Amino acid sequence: MIRVAILGGGIGAQHLAAYDRLDGFAVTHLVDQDADRLDALCGDRIARLTSVDAALAADVDLIDICLPPHLHAPVAISALAAGKHVICEKPLGTSLAQVDAITAAANASGKTVFPVFQYRFGRAFDQLRALRAAGLVGAPKAASIETHWNRGADYYAIPWRGTWAGEQGGAVLGHAIHAHDLLSTCVAPVVAVTARLGTLVNQIETEDTAALILELDGGALATSSVTLGAARDETRMRLVFEHLTATSDTLPYSPAEGTWHFTARDPVDQKAVDAICADIPEGPQGFAGFLTEVGKALNAAPNHAVTLADGARSIELVTAIYASARALSRVPLPLPATHPLREGWQP
Ligand SMILES: NC(=O)c1ccc[n+]([C@@H]2O[C@H](COP(=O)([O-])OP(=O)(O)OC[C@H]3O[C@@H](n4cnc5c(N)ncnc54)[C@H](O)[C@@H]3O)[C@@H](O)[C@H]2O)c1
Q1: Would the CB of 10 count as within 6 Å of ligand 1?
Q2: Which entry of 92, 113, 154, 248 is 20 to 30 Å from 232 by CA?
Q3: Over the stretch 155-207, which tens digit does the pLDDT of each residue have?
Q4: Residue nearest ligand 1's atom 16 by CA
Q5: What is the pLDDT of residues 97-131, one digit of tens each?
């Protein structure tokens, strides 16, 4: 049994619901400064704590960080030093220097860090993986992704949001980071970015709009459109490969759970594509899928858990996006060790 302390009861409530659906985990402690949240989530079975330090001292195996972004790196490093494995909500850190410090702490402790990217887990990406294994996908050519969500005054009523000091970034860091992880994972890693950013929807410090050109390893070209001023919340992906085109549904926060269309370029292949897709069962999705893979990793079983390197890659892309938007230039990846934004992109 993996004993877990959850830090933060906002999105942490969804983590808790996922743990409760799975065998092999026991959430024993929950930390929040908000008594109402503790009341709503803890019941009789979970110890209520109000300080992070108390959780780090508790007899648990895994610290699940669901705190505001500026706390992620310091708390992750303290948790590793206390001998705990770490799950860390996005963003893993708020600079590449912070990510380097987390990596050093993980190496020193021998414990594992799992950055949260739960959008990866669901039937559609299992289908894509199976189609690829069957040789029906081929090389990536083009992709378009939309993170078109709606955020207004109620969302920004939580004081840390929309600020450089609290949220540390805007839609590129906090919202589109999921879609960009999916692009890197399901299509190919990003090798260069050209970005334009705007604050066009809400009166906040950080960006709420982005237009990105993403050059992918192997030569494919992708575009990413991001806004927090859409009429509804929709995430859309269209991935064009040599042998098939994959088109998502519009589910905003769980794209892998919608019905995707996989269309063979050569109609002769469509039957085989459809047969493979039909054979893929619905496994654990979203947070439950993410945590299932964490459980496998901690039990030394083969797994698809999100890695520290995946989290680092996402922060490197965010850094490159800010660098590109500010210099109005194309930024190649990986960034050099001397890059001026390695210590952070916050103005
Ligand atoms: N993976 C996803 O899809 C997803 C979705 C939403 C949020 N998030 C991420 O989760 C993190 C938290 O976001 P949220 O929306 O839950 O925020 P939130 O503000 O709703 O919840 C954070 C909780 O942490 C508590 N807290 C803050 N500082 C604390 C401290 N020092 N000690 C103890 N408790 C403290 C607050 O009281 C609050 O209840 C952010 O990094 C956000 O980007 C991820």
Answers
A1: yes
A2: 92
A3: 999 999 999 998 999 999 999 999 999 999 999 999 999 999 999 999 999 99
A4: 10
A5: 999 999 999 999 999 999 999 999 999 999 999 99
What is the pTM (predicted TM-score) of this model?
0.96
Task: Give kind and range of the element (H or E) at residue 97.
Answer: helix 96-109
Closest C-alpha residue for ligand 1 atom 38: 8
- Cβ–ligand 1 contact at 289 (below 6 Å): no
Distance CA 81, CA 299 (A): 21
**Contact present, 331 and 203 (Cβ < 8 Å):** no
Domain annotation for the chain: domains and CATH numbers: 2-118 (3.40.50.720), 122-283 (3.30.360.10)
pLDDT, one tens digit per residue, over 291-338 is 999 999 999 999 999 999 999 999 999 999 999 999 999 999 999 999
Task: Assess contact for 78 and 177: CB atoms under 8 A.
Answer: no
Task: Say which residues have a Cβ less than 8 Å from residue 297's Cβ, sequence separation at least 6.
Answer: 112, 114, 303, 305
CB 116 near ligand 1, within 6 Å: yes
The whole-angstrom separation of Cα 329 and Cα 214 is 13
| Ligand 1 within 6 A of CB of 68 | yes
Ligand 1 atom with minimal separation from the 158 CA: 19
Q: Is the CB of 64 under 6 A from ligand 1?
A: no
